[in-house]
Design goal:
This protein has helices at residues 2-17, 38-45, 59-62, 72-77, 80-90, 125-141, 143-150, 178-186; strands at 29-30, 52-55, 93-106, 112-122, 156-161, 164-170. With 193 residues, the chain is α+β, with helices and mostly antiparallel strands. It has one domain: 3-Layer(aba) Sandwich (Protein Transport Mog1p, Chain A). Strands 1, 2, 3, 4, 5 and 6 form a 6-stranded mixed beta sheet that branches. A hairpin with a 5-residue loop joins strand 3 (93-106) and strand 4 (112-122). The chain is globular, with a radius of gyration of 23 Å.
């Protein structure tokens, strides 16, 4: 009888400690430590601007829950159509990675050259391509508003490569044109003549 009682206690004890399996939850993953953009990092550090390339570790980027890096407050309050498209596209993003670009080179004596390189990864090329087309369409319909929301009104370039979207955003209007140079350096097959 004692053995049965002990066996019963052990069974109850183990069954209480066993966690019930939870269904997998689709979770957005911001990879800030392990980036697969190492070759881009090397290219940026060795280009004529000699960028210091670091993982974007600012509070804003480390505490994102999902999707694109853009001016959500402005989009939500003023540009509902753009906000709707961005939210639709960002629901397909699997991972987001960001580099911060900085250099000691001054542009027009108005500050140093700076910017960011964002990489958004999708499950496959088709989803990435469809997402890119949606962003192109909304940008074509209202370029100024789209740039104000998606790039904080800074010079930028969006590039599609396989199942990735890359977004090069410079740190001010005085840096216009450099985003095109960087796009041609990093993605020569996608550069505009």
């Amino acid at each position: 009888m004692k053995q049965i009682f002990l066996l019963l206690i052990l069974i109850i004890n183990f069954s209480c400690k066993r966690e019930t399996a939870k269904p997998p939850v689709a979770e957005y993953n911001i990879e800030s430590k392990q980036l697969n953009m190492v070759n881009y990092k090397d290219m940026l550090e060795n280009c004529r601007y000699a960028f210091e390339v670091t993982v974007d570790s600012s509070y804003f980027y480390n505490h994102r829950n999902n999707g694109f890096v853009y001016n959500r407050h402005l989009a939500n309050s003023t540009y509902k159509k753009i906000d709707s498209v961005l939210k639709s596209v960002e629901s397909n993003i699997v991972t987001q990675k960001s580099f911060f670009l900085n250099t000691d080179i001054s542009i027009d004596n108005s500050g140093v050259l700076r910017g960011r390189l964002h990489e958004y990864t999708f499950d496959n090329n088709e989803i990435a391509s469809d997402s890119y087309k949606q962003l192109e369409r909304i940008a074509y319909e209202d370029m100024n508003s789209f740039e104000e929301v998606f790039s904080w009104d800074n010079p930028s370039r969006l590039i599609l490569k396989n199942n990735h979207l890359y977004h090069i955003v410079m740190g001010g209007k005085n840096m216009d044109g450099i985003q095109l140079e960087l796009a041609a350096l990093l993605f020569p097959e996608n550069s505009i003549p």
